[in-house]
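Side project, low priority. Logging it here so it doesn't get lost.
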Amino acid sequence: MNRLAQETSPYLLQHAHNPVDWYPWGNEALEKAKEENKPILVSIGYSACHWCHVMERECFEKTDIAAVMNAHFVCIKVDREERPDVDAVYMDAVQAMGVRGGWPLNVFLLPDSKPFYGVTYLPPQNWVQLLKSIDNAFQNHYDELAKSAEGFVENMSIPDSEKYGLTSQQSEFEAAHLDSMFEQLQKNFDTHNGGMDRAPKFPMPSIYKFLLRYYDISQNPEALRHIELTLNRIALGGIYDHVGGGWARYSVDDQWFIPHFEKMLYDNAQLLEVFSEAYSLTQNPLYADRIQQTIGWLDREMRHAEGGFYSALDADSEGVEGKFYIWTETELREILGDDFSWFSKLYNISGHGNWEHGFNHLHLTEAPVHTAKAAGIYHDQFEANYRNALQKLFDYRAERARPGLDDKILASWNGLLISGLAAAYRALGDEKIREMAVSAGHFIFEKMGVEERLLHSYKNGKASVTGFLEDYAAVIGACLSLYQITFEEHWIHKAEELTSYTLSNFYDTEEGFFNFTDVYGEALIARKKELFDNVIPGSNSMMAHNLYTLSLMTDKSEYLEIADKMLSKISRLVLTDVQWVTNWAALYCQRAVPTAEVAIVGTQADQLRKDFDRFFVPNKVVMGTATTSELPLLQNRTEINNQTAIYICYDKTCQLPVTKVEEALQQLSGGL
C-alpha cells in the first residue's frame, strides 16, 4: 500500500496497491522533490480510462519498473477529474512540446514543478528506456532541461488575448454572419454517418446546440438534415447502450459502431439536453425513447441516495474492455430462445462476431422498425417482442461482473446534468424528471456549498477541492434551468450569489475573461483560462451564456456588458474557426436576433408553462409566478379576467397578454 490508500478518488485508490511509491498532488511530494533534488513524474488519468488501466497493468504494477521509478523520481498520481487545473496546465505544456494530448498523461517536471517532457501511453520496454533517459538528462544535462522548461512556462504565461489575437470587435452581433459560420462547419460534416468527418468520433453537443439555434433562425434545411442524421446515428449506433440506456464516451471508428465503452456523466448530461431540444423540434419518438432510457439508467445506476450523481462507469470489467456489453452468438441463442432468429437478423449477429474475438456488439443504422421491415421480419407484435428481447438481455447482463463505478460526485458535471434533466422535463413533461433535477440541485448546495462558494468533489460524506470555474459556470446554469421549470425564485438568488463570487474571484478585468481557478485556490505554475469548446463547452462560454440569461432575468446591465464584451472578443474566432468555439456561436445566435422574454402570471402558471415548454423555442427566458413577484419581468403583471396570463416581451417591451399557449406561440412567431 502507498499513500494513495488515504485518498477518496476512485482513480487514485486504483493505484493504492502499486509498488510505485505514489504521492497524491500536494506539498509533501513537491517539497520532497526540492529537498532531494529529484525530477517529478506526474501521471494523470481517470478511473474509466482504458489505456490508464493498461499502463497500470503493464508498468505500474511491475516491481522492477516501480523500482526504477522510485529510485529516480518523486512519483505523483493525479485524477484529472478531481484536479482539472493540474491537468490543464500540464496538458497545455505537453501539447506545446508537440505531443498529442491524451490520457494517461505522463509529464516530467523539474523539482520546481516546471515541465520539460511528456508522453501518453507507452509499453513497458519503451517506458523503462524513457525513465533511464530522463534520469541521465537530469543528471548530466540539467541546464538544457531547465532552459527548455522555462520556455514552456513562458509560453503558458502569454495572455490568451495576445496568443489568439482576441480584441473587441463590433458591438453588434449580426444574423448575416450565421450562414458563414454554418458553411464553415459544413465543410467538415460527415454527410454519410453524421457528426464530423473524423475518427474516433466523439459526440460534440455544443456543435449540435449551435446547429439547432442556427436552424431556428435560418430554417436552413441542410442544418436540420445534419442534426437529424447525427442524432439518429448516435441514438442507434453502438455508442448507445441498446440494452441498458446511456451513451459511451466515443466510438473508435467513424460509424458510431464500436464504442470506447466508458460512460461519462458529462456526455449523457449534454446529450439529454440536445436530444430533448431535438425532440421538441421534430417529435421523433426515437429521441423520446433514448431520453427516457438514459434517465432510467442514470436513476438506476448513477444516482446517490441523497440526489447527486456519480461520475462514470469504467470501460473494463474483469480486466477486459467492454466485456459487460458484448455477446457471443451462443449466449444470445441461449438467452433469447425463440426470439434469437429474428433478433440475429435485426442486429447482424454471427458466430464470428461483428467485433473482435467472436463477440457481437449491438448496433443499428436505421430505427428498429425500419430495419425489421427491410429484413422481412416485421409483424404486428414486433415492437413488443423487441422490447421483451432487450429486457431478457438486460436481466441476463445484470448478473455479470459490473464495470467499476467512479462514485465521486462533481459539482460541474452535476450542474450539466441538472440542465439536461430540465430540458428533458420541458420536452416530455414527466414529473419524475423534474424531481430528479431539483433533488440534484439541493444536493449540490447542501453537500458541496460553503456560504457563497462551491467545492468541486464529494465522496464518502465529504466535499473537497476548491471549486473551479467549470463548477460555478455549470451550477449557475443549472440554477437558471431549475428556476425556469419551477418558478422558485431562490434558484435565481443562488445563481446571483455564485455569479457575484465568480466575478470577484475569477474574473480578469484586464483580459475580459474568467480564470479557471479561484484566487483562493492553489497557485500552480500558470493560471489558465478555458476559452475553447470541446466535448464539454469551455467554462468561459458557459459563463457568458449565464450572464446573458441573468441580465434578462434580473435587468442588470452589468451582466449583459460583461457577456457582450466576452462574446465580442471571441468573435474573430467565431467568424473564422467556429468548430472550436461552437458554444460561443450558440450565444452569438441568441444575440443576433431578439430573445423572447416570456412571463406567465396567475394560479395556473406552472400548468401553462408546462404546456408552453413542449415547443421548440430555444431563444427565450421563461419567468412566472402564481401570485406576485418583484422580479423585473414580473412586476405589475397580473391575471386577465381571473385567468392566468402569458406576456410575450422583447427587450422589455411586451405585447398584449394572452391566456392560451397557442396565442402566445403565434405572438412568438411574429415577434422576430
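Brief comment: The first strand starts at residue 23 and ends at 24.
Revisit when time allows.
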